[in-house]
Structures are given as C-alpha cells and as structure tokens.
Amino acid sequence: MISSSDILKASILIVDDQVADVSLLQQMLAGAGYLSIASTRNPLEVCELHRANHYDLILLDLQMPELDGFQVMDRLKEIEPGTYLPILVITAHPDKKLRALQAGVSDFVSKPFDLAEVLFRVHNILEIRLLHQKLTIHNSARLDNSQRIARLGDWEYDFVNNRLVWSDEVYRILGVSKADTPPTSESFYRMVHPDDLAIDHREKRAA
C-alpha cells in the first residue's frame, strides 16, 4: 500500500515554455502538499535532468519550441526502454490527446487548468508509479534470493547506454567483490580458464 506521505514526497518535474503555466502548476502542487517540485522551460534539458533525478512524474507540455512534447517523449524512451514512463501531458489541443495516449503517456490534462483535475490525475499517476517501483524492488529481491539458492547468476547488456550488469549471484559465484570488480567483459574474461575462452566466445556470439 502506498501512503499519502509517500505520494507527497514523490519528485515531480514540470516542463513548459510558458512562465505563467509553470508558476500556476507549481502553486497548485505546493498548495496540495507536494514537497519535491522542479521545473524547466527548456525541453532540451529534460533528458539530462531525468537521468540525474529519476523523476516520479513529468508534467510535459506538447507545444514547445526546438523540441515538442512528442520528441521529448521519444528521447525519454531511449533512456528507459521498456519501462513505465510516468508522463502527464499538458495540452490545449484536444486533437492531440489520442496521439499522446498512443505514444504511451499515462494521462493528460487540458489547458486552461482545472485545479481538481490536475491534482486528481497527478495523485493517481504517482500512486501507480510508486506501486510499480515497490513491485519491481520486491521481485528483484525474490529473484536474487532464488539465484542464491540455486547458485545461478545472470547478466544483461544495455545496448542503449553501453552498460553491462551482473546479478549479485554472479559476483558470489566468481568470488569477487562488487565494489572492487567492475561488471565488464574484460573483468569476466580474466577469470575464465584459457582452455574455456574459445567456447565462451562462441556462446556469447550465439547469444
């Protein structure tokens, strides 16, 4: 169960090029008790801000210069492919709502803003987001425990960010410290017996 306190502590980013709209949304959210509210009027900053802060909710305007809301969403999907992106679209154009939903946004609010509608939709999306995170952490803990019992590990390669990830059991099987051993191909191959390298390379190519 997600508490009201957890929801009010969630991190929120407002993205809108209009000063008045940003100010109004900040006042609405702060007045409702939300504690972590950031904003930017530059859509080019959104991805870097999200990488650094991992926002629980992004209120995203569709009509902006340089990058519109749809282009921002495409870039965010590159950062978190296949994950749940909590985006609440802001639009004054009803004809764009269907396209926004098809693009994978969680919900939308219309301009001019209605206080009750904004707060209702923000609360619902954050509740879903936090439940999703809680379930992910729970499942990850169960997987780690199952791998520990079975003495099986797994690895994953993130092609978007060029990053290799090992499960905790891989470190335990290899007998190395997570703090001292970076999860890289070079680190792994240094621990493979020379007689097994050819087989390992063949299996990796097949995978």
Question: Can you walk me through this structure?
Answer:
The chain is an alpha/beta fold. It contains nine helices and seven strands. It has helices spanning 4-9, 19-31, 46-53, 69-79, 97-102, 115-150, 168-174, 185-189, 197-206; strands spanning 11-15, 36-40, 57-61, 87-91, 107-110, 155-158, 163-166. A five-stranded parallel sheet has the order 2-1-3-4-5. The chain has a two-stranded antiparallel sheet with strand order 6-7. α3 packs parallel to α4. The radius of gyration is 22 Å and the shape is elongated.
Q: Count helical runs.
A: 9
Q: Outline, from the CA principal axes?
A: elongated
Largest sheet geometry: 5 strands, parallel
Order of helices and strands: HEHEHEHEHEHEEHHH
Uncertain regions: pLDDT < 50 for 5+ in a row?
none
Strand content: 15-25%
Number of strands: 7
Strand order of the largest sheet: 2-1-3-4-5
Cα distance, first to last residue? 39 Å
Radius of gyration: 22 Å
Structural class: alpha/beta
What do the pLDDT scores average to? Answer: 83
Query: Helical residue percent?
Result: 40-55%
